[in-house]
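Quick question about two entries, pasted in order.
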Amino acid sequence: MSTKKFSDEELIAAFEQYGSPQRIAEHFNVNVCKIYERRKNVERQHGIVLGSFAAPQKSIQQTLIPQNKKIIEHTVDNGQVFIASDAHYWPGEVSTGHKAFITLLKKHKPHTVIMNGDVFDGARTSRHDPLYKHETPTAKQEIEACQERLHEIVNAAKNAKRFWTFGNHDTRLYRYILSNAPEAAVITGSDIFDYFPGWHTCWRIDLNGSTVVKHRWHGGIHATHNNALKSMLRLNQGSAAFVTGHLHKLCVTPWRGIAGTIWGVDTGTLADPLGDQFSYLEGNPTVWASGFAVLTFKDGKLLPPELCEVVNGHAYFRGERIV
């Protein structure tokens, strides 16, 4: 990586032109961490704020669904629903799973895109103690990384309906502020969802009255089986699904009865399981898998769920290498 030097004025101009720290790092051919460091110094010395980190004004449509609407009902007669979860977007890192997601969004032009929780990681706002010699990004840096990645998703699927279910990591920032400065919790910008207009957010999404998408429910090695078995979903033309993230496993488990099939789906993690955001694993092996799920509806009926999975650094879907 180059160590090209650039002036404060050049950096300010770059922020005005590009906005994104990652794009500016590519422009100057330097590591994105250098951009974050320089920006901090420039903001302090010049008394300005650089970048796209800003809460939306009241004139912009707010993201949050009213408190009395925890569940969104959504209909897909014909088309695909792309569901990714647990992206844990991190500054300077673009995972293979995310690249594959963007590639297939452009190719398939789905009806709906769902980010099924934990888009944001919130390393510094968690309840866990800091790790040994492990520097984590600020909430500001993380939100900017999320803005950049979700902007790519919006551009790749311009006509798709967009939803974001609450993940336990997504709520860390608000919980942190509410616990430490409750008076500030009512201020616009105290919740990360304030920074993502155009994404409909909720705890749960019901597709066609027979398929449920939410961040988490049962845990353990039989989670998808138990989700399907205990959901008591109403079958639509002989099929239904209960889709969750949280466990990062990426798998499909069918529960078949006389009336039809209910699939339990784990949407895996869009992140790299070996990424810096998961340093707390201390290098231990894990059953996690990077990828995402694709649901296809035909005349309102759910067809068998499909997975895109990252294997040995490459993403595959329907037997084809995507990235």
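Here is the second entry:
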Amino acid sequence: MSVDPDVFRSAMGRFASGITVVTSRDAGGHDHGLTVSAFCSLSLDPPLVLVCIGHDASMHPVLLDATHFAINILAIGQESLARRFAAPETDRFDGIGYQRGPTGAPLLEEVLATLECRKTAALPGGDHTIFVGSVEHAATGTSSPLLYYRGGYAQLDR
């Protein structure tokens, strides 16, 4: 017996998660990015992360073809970036601060952390693909995280 989709969505909405923007560069040299909350650490030794991308997302074919991608973990005050990269496809990088990392992936400015990864696997996961990345470069900031909880953005009470 399967759980009702609305109950499942409601239950999962009660799990607070950080917000990331996954970025990569396609073979033509164009930058792509997407807001993603389905992200986590997979292994410390070796350092691996995973990110889940829906089959219908514009980023999906980019990551299927990519050798590298970056995870930009958003900080408090970056809700506008989260919304921008979640909105329907536009030139999401137009007018925002970013730099190119050693792997060539775009790294957003003033984020809480960045992880540049070499794609090591793409696994089926229902209506998503699970992309596993071996972390090759990482950097951290000092701010607090932007969170997603029950369908909206939130922050830690400190």
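Reply: Helices lie at 5-12, 59-65, 79-86. Residues 5-154 form a domain with the Pnp Oxidase; Chain A fold (CATH 2.30.110.10). Hope that helps.
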